[in-house]
Model the fold of this input.
Amino acid sequence: DADDALRVALATRFAGAPLDSLVDSAGRVNYDRPEHLDYSLDMVRSGHWGVDITSTLTGAAADSVGSSRYPAGSFEEVPEAALQVKELREGDIVWFVLDPAHPAARKLREDHGLVIGHIGIVVVEGEERRLIHAASSPLPGEYAGGRVVWVPLATYLARVERYGAVIVTRFAD
Done:
């Protein structure tokens, strides 16, 4: 039900916080709590979004650039060119790593400490891996922005230039 969904959502963003302390009497959530996971890489590391399986995937390597928050080499990623999409399973969460070669992505890394710029869920249709994600912008010829969409993962990776690698988490089978 809706209350259960809310509890799960809050638990995944507020690691270790007592759920009854997160929402005040007016229904507001305090995002300044120290337990709030502000950064997506912290969400990956929390384990609430599945186990980080990135290091088990073909082509996985330590990030060589880092950000103003995370030092180089502090996490594993799979570069786009090395990703074997057939290794991904239904329900895997794909975290898109900002490409330091892309000027706007590099600025997000340097100025805000961000490493991950987007997230989506893998759906397997036959042999194809598709991505379900919240699209804020259109991808011409594929979908309009401002909605949740499905697109072949390979198409998304080839067409969206600001991401250069992925991190993948997986819930237990």
